Predict the 3D structure of the following.
Amino acid sequence: MIAQEYLVRERQATFKSEFYRGELFAMAGGSPTHSLIAANFVREAGNGLKGSRCNVYNSDLRVRVNPAALHTYPDASIICGDLQFDDNQQDTVINPVVLIEVLSDSTEKYDRGAKSILYRQIPSLKELILIAQNEAYVGHFVRQDSGGWLLRDVLDLSGSIELAAVQISIALSEIYRSVTFSEQRSQ
């Protein structure tokens, strides 16, 4: 299957699928914790972005990461200025500045690996946020002037992530508001 065939199918489908290297993958529903973390992030980012040229979008917004390799629905996206679309259907964007994924047990390896690598190839992308749902952990990738990426791990609920590309800060305590962890990370 090619990306154009995927888009035709996806636009008619009653459920969301990710397109990765010629294959379709149905998007499974997330856990209540996954949903809560994503909603907390969207709320905090939206509040922080008020009055700016940037907006936060939830997981209903499809992002084309690579024309041939990946079309997906990140848990959240931040886009500044006008939306740039993949085609005239105007339902797939290509210019995210920040992408957010809440890690699930079933997708964590892929999200940290192949998907993260593909995300970081998006020319407009400045920051990538990976949020664990089973412990207080945020992996914050920031594009450097050299084109490389710097990873900062934030492991403490008293910490925060500084999204310099959109000039906001989000406390981990807000990302994890009302989340109960079943196990504590061993120190």
Summary: The chain has one domain: 30-175. Residues 30-175 form a domain with the tt1808, chain A fold (CATH 3.90.1570.10). The chain has a mean pLDDT of 91. The chain has five helices and 13 strands.
